[in-house]
Amino acid sequence: MTEVSSLTGRLLVATPALADPNFDRAVVLLLDHDDEGSLGVVLNRPTPVDVSDILGSWAPLAGEPGVVFQGGPVSLDSALGVAVVPGGQGGAGRTTDSGPLGWRRVHGAIGLVDLEAPPELLSRALGSLRIFAGYAGWGPGQLEAELADGAWYVVDSEPGDVSSPDPERLWRSVLRRQRNELAMVATYPDDPSLN
Questions:
Q1: Which range is least confidently modeled, 88-92, 114-118, 182-186?
Q2: For labelling alongside 136, which of 42, 82, 111, 193 has CA 20 to 30 A away?
Q3: pLDDT tens digits for 105-135?
């Protein structure tokens, strides 16, 4: 098998042509991508469930809106915590290369939180926290096939994407900030038949 170039830490932005309703206008942060497959969370699918309803001790650390997000169609009964640690990119920040105890770096300042750990371990280090129910997953070569079919745009992530206070507008805002023709895709109508 040929080696896969890692897209870990990048965003998958659904193209208007993507027909799967699970990913309509989705923005997916890839948490892991290698030749064994890919795993990510959809950043712009808030649910009506408050974090305090399922993980009360983590609720004070969750950013606004303080709800659980549907991370994808796989394992909806499991929870993932994704957090930004300011200064977590190495260098002069408050964290070491490995980050604070209970947090594992994914890319730059973005990492996974051990939700079994006491929140007090991380409360001073976290800049923002999102809780996701479920995740998006792809088997070996599956994501590459979808990329070849034009289902996704691949763009760089920014730490603020994880904690966007207006997740419903994240698809448009991520596309708008691109410095190429993708910025124009942000104006694509929700229903092209009404155009």
A1: 88-92
A2: 193
A3: 999 999 999 999 999 989 889 888 999 999 9
Strands 128-138 and 27-34: unpaired
Q: Find the DSSP H helices in 30-181.
A: 51-54, 142-148, 159-162, 170-176
Give 3-state DSSP helix, strand, coil % of the chain, rounded to 5. 25, 35, 45
Q: 144 lies in a domain?
A: yes
Q: Which residue range(s) make up the domain with 63?
A: 10-185
Strand partners, 103: 113
Q: Is residue 191 assigned to a domain?
A: no
Radius of gyration (C-alpha) of the chain in whole angstroms: 17
Domain count along the chain: 1
pTM of structure: 0.88
Closest CA to 58 of 133, 116, 135, 134: 116
Q: Could you tell me if residue 194 is inside a domain?
A: no
